[in-house]
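Extended Data, panel c. Modelled sequence:
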Amino acid sequence: MPQLDFSIFPSQFFWLCVSFFLMLFIMSKFIIPKTAEMINLRKAKIDADLAAAEELKQKVEKTLEKYNQALKKASDEANASLQKTRDELNATIERRQQELTQELNAEIAAGEKKIAAAKQKALGNVEAMVEELTPLVLKKIGFAKVSAKEIQTALKMTENK
């Protein structure tokens, strides 16, 4: 096997060193700088993107804070408006209830007056009917000799009690 021939070791070692150092030189002068430059560009782009993202995050947080404040303000205004409307409606309801109570009290008073008048009229009619019917009833029972004057006197006595 030629690899194990000790007589060609120095030659192989020489070409190994030449090849290694040539590759090392090419890598250090051409490939590594381009790769490092690409890495630096990527890092710079990523850093710029992160900075822009942080700036946008702060803007979004400020905007969200303004939105929340506006929402709270609108909610407070809506609650105040609702409370004002509720108070106005309660006042209107209370006023209307008072008006209705007054109207009902007036109607009740008028109804009581009508009832009292009807009662008086009915009582007047009852007395007249009693005066008419009493002689007829007494005749049927067998007391035909009772006069109208005696009946009126008896009725007056019952009214006084």
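The mean pLDDT is 89. This feature is highlighted in the accompanying rendering.
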